[in-house]
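Per reviewer request, we include the raw input and output of the structure prediction for the construct analysed in the revised manuscript.
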Amino acid sequence: MEKITEVVAALIWDGGRFMICQRPAHKARGLLWEFVGGKVEPGETKEQALARECREELAVTLDVGEVFMDVVHTYPDLTVHLTLFHASIRAGVPQKLEHNDIRWITVDEIGQYDFCPADADILKRLKEYGSNSR
């Protein structure tokens, strides 16, 4: 059985919009959109990993909340177990330290962006979530 990479990501809302980040062109799945986050390092909790990644990638301090959902996805080069947390920015303004671009979008705008395949189920759930919360 191949090793599964533990990955965490943040669902950060600002009013009715949530944050998505565009991967750098030179990375795997370059220029696809995703939720900010990254790999869990040995000895970290998922929450600690997410807070660290957001410091490194966005220069913000996060408050990490409940899990929104988690998915397992197999790419040609790795299998990821992605846990998406509700989160909010406690301090700082998001900076593009590692990403090509950062956008705040509504649930209705999801279809206008090409996301990483691992996010497909999450986006489907978000659309249901979004239409139920209005």
